[in-house]
Amino acid sequence: MTLLDGKKISNDIKNEIAEHVQSMVAKGEKVPHLAAVLVGSDGASMTYVGAKVKACERIGFKSTLIEMPEYTSEEELLEKIHQLNTDSDIDGFIVQLPLPDQIDEQKVLMAIDPDKDVDGFHPTNVGRMALDLPTFLPATPYGIMELLERYQIETSGKNVVVMGRSHIVGRPMSILMSQKRPAGDATVTVVHSRSKNLKEITKAADIVVAAIGISEFLTGDMVKEDAVIIDVGITRVPDQTKKNGYRLAGDVHFESVSKKASYITPVPGGVGPMTIAMLLKNTLLARERHG
Ligand code: GUN
Hints:
Elements: E1 2-3, H1 6-26, E2 33-39, H2 43-59, E3 62-68, H3 74-86, E4 92-95, H4 105-111, H5 123-130, H6 139-150, E5 159-163, H7 170-178, E6 187-191, H8 198-203, E7 207-210, E8 228-231, E9 235-238, E10 246-249, H9 254-257, E11 263-264, H10 271-290
Parallel strand pairs: 1-11, 2-3, 2-4, 5-6, 5-7, 7-8, 8-11
Antiparallel strand pairs: 9-10
Helix pairs in contact: 1-10, 2-10, 6-7, 6-10
Bound molecules: guanine.
């Protein structure tokens, strides 16, 4: 069994981007500038956004963190998005999800200028992805494709089972995996909360992408020998033996599944760091496109 070391690969990618940034600086060009909007103080979201901003600093990007209170109205957030859309110094920005209940997520995502939508969540960009047109690919599925590629794991003609149909991970993952080269070229099955005979389906998979948000759901008896396992889940599970009172668990029961898998991503240190690296890659692309 080989661990798919997202931490290492994401570091390689960040070093590649940092080199690129240095050459931009040497030529007197403007460096990429990413802004992140965080509404409220959800612990996990604060951690993720903090990691994104820190990564920007490390590779020489400019970054701006915009923190808004939990009670922010939809109008106030839309106004902030309008400012970011029209601020020519900002190359790309993200609005961290989930948003508080009083804010309509879809309305917010649709307000983002598609040319600055480095998360790739705007309907225009989702449509462009589905039609194989150049766009910003959503960072998590993009990171998974990159991780598989850098470990030279073949996807062409393989049976890929995507568990989950979220707009952020499952849906785009299934699209990328089914697309022609240079994407996945795989035979894709999507399973979700209404699926029947789940185990039968997952057992036939060469590659499983688990993105359902239920901790340790995929167990060893549900996968075939030598399957490739990608774990997108990250849930805080109460654990009194830990200093902060919780541990991080994936959607995969690592102990039992790792005994059968040929390759598996750890949690943390697998998919998570890849998401950040690909967001940075998208921001660099945005800077280059804006010229
Ligand atoms: N929440 C969970 N994942 C993501 C992501 O990739 N981008 C944003 N904006 N919010 C998220």
